[in-house]
Amino acid sequence: MMRCACRSGLRSGFLAALLGVLWWSSAPAQPDPYSTVGLHWTATGDDGYVGTASSYHLRYSTNSVGSDTTGWWNNATPVSSGLPTPSPSGSQDSARVVGLQEGTTYYFVVRAVDDGLNESGFSNVAVKATASCATPSNAPQQFQAAEDSTSGNVALTWVATTDPLPTQIHVYRAVGSGGMTLLASLAASGTSYEDQTTNPNTTYRYRAAWAAPCGSNPATGEGPMTSEITIRTGGGNPPPPQPTEEPLVHAFPNPSRGPVQVRLNVTGTGDQAVLLRVYDLSGHWIATAVDGTYPPGMHQFTWPCMSRDGARVAPGFYELLGTIGSDKVREQIVLLP
């Protein structure tokens, strides 16, 4: 332990604490290395090596101390909570400093205080960098929302990431003009989420980000956010105009959690060739819903939501594209989880 030059008014021999850096390793107090630094030092007495100090003052900064320790101390951030009651002289005391930024170097100094509120000189400077956090480089793609007209829930969908870094996707929601809050943290392998906490006739805004979470703060490790999407539930949107005649193609129920019915209106006076295929929003051919020749009139078919290779199609947005005779047709289909 080193003696220090004490400022005027301190008792003779009042010592500065010696400060060092450590990581806490025993459960359940394992710190978050991305936002927490664990510190330990040797306690001094309140009169040299004798007695016990009354309290500690601990400060930190991202600026190095330099030659003007007093100036650094006056501008550094004080630690206002979590400091231990001083132990008897020669014992080990420790504290954790929380709420730090990841990937940042910090400088720490501690001082002991006696029962007359006199501060010791400055300890040595402890230096520690919090752990760095690698973040995904891209936002989720094709992030979309659709209301389930039956339940009023909002179905959110996106395409899977090819980036190996994310382990989660964070979905945020705002109500009306309010601020965004974290709605769900989901495994990065997922491609959909159903918000079951919506209310009728309410405007909701959604965003999402891939994440490789670092420590206890969910926002640490997030990549770029998607653009904001807005949807109004429960009849807030005006009803679409009623068609004056039966559409050439109609898929229902839509959105759907199960098989989709495809109704065709074949017009004209003779048989018509019909080819309808299902595509994802990236333009990949997923399945063939109808392929044949049919006479004029209404015809109905079932697409079991299976792909060309017989696999169940994932929830999301799809396009039903094709031709009925010489007419080109298009219908969007939303599959819910």
Brief characterization of the structure:
It comes from Eiseniibacteriota bacterium. With 337 residues, this protein is mostly beta strands.
Provide key terms for this protein.
337 residues, mainly beta, Immunoglobulin-like, 3 domains, four-stranded antiparallel sheet, 2% helix, rod-shaped, disordered N terminus
Question: Can you give a write-up of this model?
Answer:
Residues 139-236 form the Fibronectin type-III domain. This is Fibronectin type-III domain-containing protein. The protein contains 1 helix and 21 strands. The chain has one helix at 69-75, and strands at residues 18-22, 37-42, 55-61, 77-78, 92-97, 105-113, 126-129, 144-147, 154-157, 168-175, 181-187, 192-195, 203-211, 229-232, 249-252, 260-266, 272-280, 285-294, 297-303, 316-324, 327-335. The strands form 6 sheets. A 4-stranded antiparallel β-sheet has the order 4-3-6-7, covered by helices on one side. Strands 11-10-13-14 form a 4-stranded antiparallel β-sheet, with no helix packed on it.
